[in-house]
Specification:
By secondary structure, the chain is of the alpha/beta class. Helices cover 35% and strands 17% of the residues.
Amino acid sequence: MKFVIKSISKNSGRLGQLRISKESKELQTPLLMQTTKGGSIPYLTADAFELVTNEQQQHQQLLQLTLSTMDQMADSLVQWNRSLSEYVGLPGHNTVLLLRDPCETTPAGGNDRDVVPLFTRRGKESLTASQYLEMVAKFAPDAYQGLCDADTNPESTKKRVQKSVDRTERFMTECYEQHGKLARLANSTLLAPIVGGYNTFARTQSIKHARQQPANSYGGYVLEGFHTNGLAATALKAAQLLPVVEHCLQQLEDEKPRLMPGAYTPLLTLELIRRGVDVFDTSYVYCAAVNYKALTFSFAKDEIAHSPFLDLTDEAIKEEFIPMLSGCSCLACQKHTRAYVHHLYKTHELLGPILLMIHNLHHYMAFFDAIRASIATDQLPELIEHVRLQNTDSEIDYRIEQNVKVVTKAAMGKGFVAAAAV
């Protein structure tokens, strides 16, 4: 893995070029990884995904794969003699393998001195560091996250945080030792996890352990342990998260990329980029789509007030025969209306989340194009303020709430029946 900083600014973060492997194309950072489930872009076929991206974006894709959704494929991959991206039907893209699915809440508990829990569709499994590396070797990804205990969140106790750091050090010591000995990982880059919850002392301890390793032991960092994935990441408070992240980034060398998986809101993502984080994922897009929210926030300066989402479950739009977002060039907005997607929600049609994924991915990738353009002209602070207020008088709330409305057959023409509290 090779990372080169093209420009850096105190106010606007940094632009970089990331090359995952020797034969891969250069990826521009800040970079948006494509989150997958079971190796597939959620709700989209490979052909549909191509329709979402323009020609330039097609060459700027990095697949984020997760062991928790793909563990059942490990044995068959041993017999596969081509790339992992070809196996999942998305050839030509680099792959990064993480342990947990950022789209779904990771259950707490199950951690022990020598094992980390892996929550899969079949239930919980426990992995030692050696078992984890053996499984990762079967996948042979271009890059992968080292094993860590990231079961911490803003409410974690000091004792729980310290245990996560101590266990991660033990796991990573074995990962560093074994990485070079596994033939199938010869062309894979190890990413060092940085854990420690919201305790700056614990974070410093985790960073020191990584930086004490021999040169070229790992190619980048994954900042973990801030949330439990899923919708919890959309509710994080900037005032609590940003000082800890800034503390970490000040101790990391500039020439290695920094990854932060999770459904961070657009505004929090911008603040993290401003401080020097390089790589994010599309789990926020997925969380919005499965809760029937179309992304409508603006990232181009204008004088019109905007809202962050369009709630497609709202009965008020059942006769609005206009696109989900006016002026959007995505396939969903060009071919379908708000009323139609609302109808798909009411009738439980699978096409509903498909159209929402198409729109939300298109919108969010264009957002990252705008971010890189703003950094190049040192105008990221202006973009942050525009996204923060959206031409209104107060800060926009980008948090995604779980959709608890249910539709029964008897209610399909009469609105919605409120579900019991989840």
